[in-house]
Amino acid sequence: MTPKQASTTILEIVSKIDVIPVIATDDVLASVDLAKSLVDAEMPVIEVTLRTPNALKVIEKMASVNGAIVAAGTVLDEAQLVACKEAGASFAVSPGSTQSLVVASQRHSMPLLPGAATASEIMFLSEKGFHFLKFFPAEINGGAAALKALGAPLPHVSFCPTGGVNASNIADYLALTNVACVGGSWMITSEGLQT
Questions:
Q1: Which class in CATH covers the domain with range 3-189?
Q2: Of 14, 28, 65, 158, which residue is least crowded by CB atoms under 10 Å?
Q3: Would residue 85 show up in a list of annotated catalytic residues for this protein?
Q4: Is 47 a catalytic residue?
């Protein structure tokens, strides 16, 4: 799968949503019910970050839920990418990008949403064939204003901003023509999962 095909695949997956809930949980037992609740709430695309010991088991359980489309977040290397694919993730999300991760995504036919924060990083990934990127960390790197400015010289690239996106600024991001959706860790917090 080429980067262009991967970007197109992920864009097709997120085309009917505004928000991807970003979840860091170690609770395997609760993950099925959580995935069902998100699917019922018309938020079927769920990013599970690899920040907890049981993240791969959570991905596997959530991916088994009818209608759930699980992305594996915080993927940093080939071994993680392969493990996430084997666990049932539909695509991988990375906070940045490396040449080896790009090559691994092609080698294993695993769609990748690589992260970028600067014009140079966006141009590099665009040259590789990626036209849908994670903009991370969004707010620290200028937020919606930065994405609007980047859209002028780089109109062929779309983004999923994450990092500092929340209920008070989501509308600013979604109003931009180069934003397909946002990633939202504010939606389901670790405190909310415990209640």
A1: alpha beta
A2: 28
A3: no
A4: yes
